[in-house]
Design brief:
This protein has three helices and no strands. By secondary structure, it is mainly α.
């Protein structure tokens, strides 16, 4: 199956970037967040923050299609 790197909707804390990376590599999102936080701290904060913002703007949000209930019109409503 073809994997696509997207922002997560399930494992979202700020924008879902780290959760999306974790889903892409099939690992725990908290481990990815911890590694990213450490890299950001040791790189002087600015590169990590800019990288996160760029990823947030570039990565699309994961689209999940769920079956929805049929919409009932006014004519279909049951009279009580």
């Amino acid at each position: 199956m073809h994997k696509k790197l997207t922002r997560s909707t399930e494992h979202r804390v700020i924008a879902g970037v780290m959760g999306g990376i974790a889903e892409f590599v099939d690992t725990d999102p908290n481990a990815i967040r911890l590694i990213y936080a450490l890299l950001t701290i040791f790189s002087g904060f600015i590169p990590g923050i800019i990288g996160y913002i760029v990823a947030m703007l570039i990565l699309p949000v994961k689209v999940t299609i769920t079956p929805s209930e049929p919409v009932r019109g006014e004519d279909d409503s049951a009279a009580v």
